[in-house]
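ugh finaly. both done.
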Amino acid sequence: MYGNVWKKVFLIVLKGYVKKGRLEAGCDEAGRGCLAGPVFAAAVILPPNYKNKWLDDSKKIKESLRKELREEIQEKAIAWAVASCSPEEIDKMNILNASIHAMHRSLDQLNPEAEFILVDGNRFKPYKEVPFETFVKGDGRFLSIAAASILAKTYRDEFMEKIHEEFPGFDWKINKGYPTSHHRAYLIENGPSPYHRKSFRLKELQQIQLPL
């Protein structure tokens, strides 16, 4: 179905829902640990009987497979949405709050609305009156969270590849804004771009004056 992709040696079947019979939305984010670019988040409501043996935490899946999975998720999901918070918003509210805010923005777009929310991680803030539960490593436990991780990751990667053309020296096409050795070295030598998060101050970047 997905071409010549690697096969799982030990097949782990992700759960489809917490409680059957309600519209459960999985939420996840991408880009929280980056030095540059927005943080993206996605919310996905999958059909109750949806199955996909390849769906997993986006970080464990090859890029080519992530793209194929994205197409299927968008085609078969009952509802899905992707949203983001800009570097300026991250600097203003901090990365944790910005990640949660981006999740709320994605939930705002769902039609139909979620009746229950599954969140990857251990931190979340109430969204309207909708009950929720957090799950550590939830993107490796529930299909809807894994689907959200795929959408958030692929949409953010595309954004970083696009802005790479404006500032190719940072090599965002490869590192996607994460603090690789090349990214850090180029930042130290040349200073930040308009896409950098000014509130991130790694030890090796202390010499750079990053205006808030």
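ok and the 2nd:
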Amino acid sequence: MAELEALLCYPRTPLYEASLAWELLRTQSLSEIGASLDLKSILAQYYPLARQRAGSEELTILRSKILGIAEEFGFPSAVSSKVLVEFDRSVGPEIHAQMTIMPADASSIDVWNFINTAVVPDVVLWRYGRFNAQAKKWSISEDRLFDMTRTTIGRLWWRVHLLGPELAGKLGEDEVVNLLEKPRIGGYPLLSRAMGAGLLAFASESNTGRRMELFRDATKRLLRKMAVQSVFVMTPGQIDEFVTALFLESATALGIPLPEAPTATPSTADFQASRFAANWPMF
């Protein structure tokens, strides 16, 4: 119970307020945005019954942590998409460790609206924005600002929370997206971890084409079987066996050589006792 008491709730910004904020942010340079941020006074609202609240000190530390990592990867200069993906992999575990946010609070898009607009809007624009020199305005896809599954900072927190830092770091960007954006799979940590670890066990990282082919085939088989067989009543060990069998079927059907000794997918059993189980959103 003491550990739960230490978890924090973060300020929230409703969609219409975030939209208004971004209208102004899009017209500013990254340096202007950084200079205008003030985390000493928090004007946003919190979850009304929040016991422990992230204040200006926690938010300032969070910004410093994210900004510091971004600078290591070239912020504020333009960099390649490959570098940006590596930034995601590096900053995700740090965000997850630093925020100590309640998972129920992290399931609110209003929280990530606040983080995006008030804490690191310059990093958000550097990561996903494109500056139009003629219009003197940033363009950025709205799903990177307001969509729960794709919001810039929130998706990185959930990626690590659902998959764990080690697995999240080993999976490719497309693999993570295909895994976590399927609600019936990504919303259930035991299953999503088993699928991710199963892919690593059965497919070579060097052969990305066949690896994605195997992953898509195994995912299709999983969704078909979930129509008549519930994974939500399985133990972690049973889920491991179930997923291993799926990848065996897929690899055989696709003619992909099997590893010498396919191992049960790791880490799902370790997740059984997680105190957050009731708070994962099925998004």
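summary for the 2nd one i guess: DSSP finds 16 helices and two strands in the chain.
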